[in-house]
Amino acid sequence: MTGVSSLRVGLSATTTEPALTGGRMDGIGVYSQALIAHLPQAGVEVQPLSFAPTGDARRMTASRAMPLSFPLAVLGDFILPSSVHLSTQTALGKGAAPLDLFHATDYRIVRMDCPVVATLHDAVPVSHPEWASPKLRKLKNWLQINAAQKAQHVIANSHFSIRELVDYFGVNENRISVVNLGVPAEWLDRPDAAECDATLAQYQLRAGYFLFVGTLQPRKNVERLLAAYLTLPPVLRAARQLVIVGSPGWRSEALVAQIKAAQQHGENVVWLDQLTDNRQLRHVYAGAGAFIFPSLHEGFGLPLLEAFASGVAVACSGTSSLPEVASGAALEFDPMSVGEIAAAMTTLARDDVARARYIAAGERRALELTWAETARRTAAVYHHVLSR
């Protein structure tokens, strides 16, 4: 088994590299960046590596470029003998120590000259094709199935995801380890009150609002959240805004029209579609009176954990991975029922005892799920793979 102090791991950084993303990171990027930041404290030397399109390698600032772009590397997998592997050593440069292992966090996997661990976040494009863009569905399906087949070991973010990985990708359950996602330790401390007030004033928010965070897409179920809010008594809607944070995603046109119509009719609905500053996002979480997460399907549900860490009472769907992540710290509802969503919102707005109970339970749950703990458990997976 490789010694703790000498373990060298290459880690996918394509979704974190500013030259490739334009500075906007999705959930996989947040996860990848967190591992890059916290794995060294778990005894792992991390080398961020990216599959850069031809011509972009010289612009990269946060990672090293693989010797081939991903399409070319995949083509090599098809036309070259199975004994030929992509050389990570070429990316590292002459004289660099070889990698013990490569961790693919973003499904981009080809044959490599070291063992590969892959994180598979969910199976939505296969399990629920109606929630995935037709233009990207086949590509995402292929990427995930390819990753499941080529990796020596798979990391899932929840026990719920294991069943999907087995059923839809044919992964041997013995090759799967569960490692939960986390939050940065600083999220467990309350942000500066004056900075919070400034952020809320900038976006014309009044503390105590109902909050949702996530990309606007069908499986996030924001249409029912909006409908539930609009059924609340007028006095409650007047007192508490509905704040939706998230950029428009696939098939969100009807929802965007509904949000704008509600605003035009004088409803207390605020849509922040351009909020990308992580510090301001913390402020928006901290100012909420209740976080409502009606998603129909999540492999983990990171916003749930961010709300817990921010000291906000949470109500969420009682489906997919969310009950596992919440572990009793959230008020659960049927996401298909507008009435149940509205009832949960009313409870967290008007029942001070219940709200305080869920806040305390959420804060305790957040203490168990930090990025430092994610890194520690991920390093344990590396050692397990290398010891076999």
UniProtKB/TrEMBL annotation:
Glycosyltransferase subfamily 4-like N-terminal domain span: 26-186
All copies of domain Glycosyl transferase family, residue ranges: 209-364
The keyword Transcription regulation is annotated on this UniProt entry: no
A Pfam family annotated for this UniProt entry: Glyco_transf_4
Keyword Transferase: yes
Keyword tags: Transferase
Gene3D superfamilies hit by this protein: Glycogen Phosphorylase B (3.40.50.2000)
Entry's transmembrane regions: none
PANTHER family: GLYCOSYLTRANSFERASE WBBK-RELATED (PTHR46401:SF2)
Protein name in UniProt: Glycosyltransferase
Organism: Duganella margarita
